[in-house]
Amino acid sequence: YTESSARPAVAKRAPLRLAPASGASQLVDLVMDAVIEQTPAGGSVEKVTMPTVVLTGKGDVKTLATDGVITYQTSITGVDAREAVGQSVAPQAIKAQLTSLVGMVIDGTLSAAALPGATKYTVATPNESTVGAIESVRLMLPTWLPLPTEPVALGARWEVSQPVEINNIATVQVTTFTLRGRTGTTMTIAGETKVVGLDQKLGDVQVSDISGQGTVELVVDTAKLYPRMKRTVSTKMRLRQGAEDVTVMMQLGSAFAPK
Fold first, then answer.
1. Which of 34, 165, 219, 254 could make an S-S bridge to 142, C-beta 3.0–4.6 Å?
2. How far apart are CA 23 and CA 115, in angstroms?
3. Looking only at Cα atoms, what is the longest distance across the chain?
4. H helices within the chain, ranges in order?
5. How many angstroms separate the CA atoms of 74 and 206, rounded?
6. Sign of the CA dihedral 78, 122, 229, 162?
7. For 35-78, what is each residue's pLDDT tens digit?
């Protein structure tokens, strides 16, 4: 990702740095939603709404290094699929596809500014549906959003650009964050996202007119691994292959819900 400088503010500045103690544990739900619309040129909208997927887990801070790097491990203890308004697929069918993820372990690192490093997914006893289950949730899995690398004050704004690949299509999500509140180790942050992307080819499919927008709400306790977060991003693009011409819109929702 890239980050622009936070805007100056009159109030006293202070760093925003994650610093959960080594050995700290936290229960969390990883929540995911998806709505996909396809509109053929001259045709009507075809809409698919997925049930809400919830992975329940326990996050453990393994180490907090002197340079601020956090090594963590999250163990998935439960999987659920819950009804969503206008859903096109039965929750029971989605839950059955994801059941093999119970017991999955996610190992990763975070910088003090919440920049994720390499992430590893391990399933001790995989079955024939495990790889597909991991791929189906990987795109939607909530993740940390970077904090500014310099001290900021209440009202500060900063911009973060993150490359995001959607089914091998390169996009960039540019989010402008605002520090809305700060009490002790807890911060309230709001953000607005714009999605951009260059015209590109995927095999013999021409991809163009990439655009989109989104919002995010964050409550970050710097003494804990997981923030409370709710994010929605809609991405729109045009796909052309021969005589076929389709506009696709994907609205992905993700959330960290600490318990």
1. 254
2. 20
3. 60
4. 91-98, 130-138
5. 39
6. negative
7. 999 999 989 999 999 999 999 999 999 999 999 999 999 999 99
